[in-house]
Design goal:
The structure is a single chain. A hairpin with a 2-residue loop joins strand 1 and strand 2. It contains one helix and nine strands. The longest helix has 6 residues. The chain is globular and about 40 Å long. The chain has one domain: Uncharacterised protein PF14869 family, DUF4488 (Lipocalin). It is mostly beta strands. The protein has an eight-stranded antiparallel β-barrel.
Length: about 120
């Protein structure tokens, strides 16, 4: 199983069939480390919690932010520095990488950011 650990910036996203605004994508960041995740907008943590990874699925449990207490199942595909995740915002696991009106699916394609050298 490939590691998803790292810092990811979205390059494309849609919720319920509607494309996310470019400005929102530019300011968003997903960090996956060990078994923890955080989502930041403009440098401020908006959502954080823990996740479990299997070969093709994730289960996120939010501990802070607007999703606190929610369990969000997701499917993912990792190819090089690209990660595609389809989140089941209604609590049911997605079966495909697609969204449509009223589906409560959030589909995001991320690009891994290079690791920062610590000096």
């Amino acid at each position: 199983m490939s590691t998803l650990h790292g810092t990811w910036h979205p390059i494309r996203a849609e919720l319920d069939g509607e494309a996310a605004p470019a400005l929102a994508l530019e300011r968003m960041e997903l960090i996956l480390q060990s078994d923890a995740y955080s989502v930041s907008f403009a440098g401020m943590v908006h959502d954080r919690g823990t996740f479990i990874q299997t070969a093709s699925a994730l289960v996120l449990t939010a501990h802070h932010g607007p999703n606190t207490g929610r369990v969000i199942p997701a499917i993912y595909q990792l190819a090089g520095d690209r990660l595609r995740i389809c989140y089941g915002m209604d609590g049911t696991a997605p079966t495909a990488f697609q969204t449509s009106t009223g589906s409560r699916r959030y589909l995001v394609t991320y690009r891994r950011q290079p690791a920062q050298d610590v000096q």
